[in-house]
Design a protein that fits this description.
Blueprint: H1 6-17, H2 20-42, H3 47-71, H4 82-117
Helix pairs in contact: 2-4, 3-4
């Protein structure tokens, strides 16, 4: 294979994850849009919420590693070379960041909706 074809990657991920691929892609797309809308609405990052989101993000990184182990044909004991460990670290990092962004977004919109319902 001399070229990296996006359709081949899509086919590989579809084979590995099945219908979960489309759920994950929808969560990524909708979560990113909701995060951007929240940043526009609040015009800043809320430090307390960000710290909690980062802490919850560690659990998301661990869950990303568990998902990776479930859908791949090899386990962590099979990782031998540096690129294997780099890929494992990348999966953890992406799970951590994605979960932190989603938690921050959900917490922010939850607070925004709660504040807008209170009578003045």
């Amino acid at each position: 294979m001399n070229e990296l074809d996006p359709l081949v990657l899509l086919a590989v991920f579809q084979e590995m994850l099945g219908p979960l691929l489309w759920v994950l892609l929808a969560v990524v797309l909708l979560g990113t849009l909701a995060f951007a809308a929240l940043l526009v609405r609040e015009r800043r990052l809320v430090a307390n919420r960000l710290v909690w989101a980062q802490a919850i993000g560690v659990l998301g990184g661990i869950l990303a590693l568990v998902l990776m182990a479930q859908v791949s044909s090899s386990g962590f004991a099979d990782a031998g070379g540096p690129i294997d460990w780099l890929l494992i670290a990348l999966v953890f990092f992406l799970g951590l960041v994605g979960t932190a962004i989603l938690f921050y977004t959900v917490a922010g919109w939850r607070l925004a909706c709660r504040c807008s319902r209170q009578p003045a």
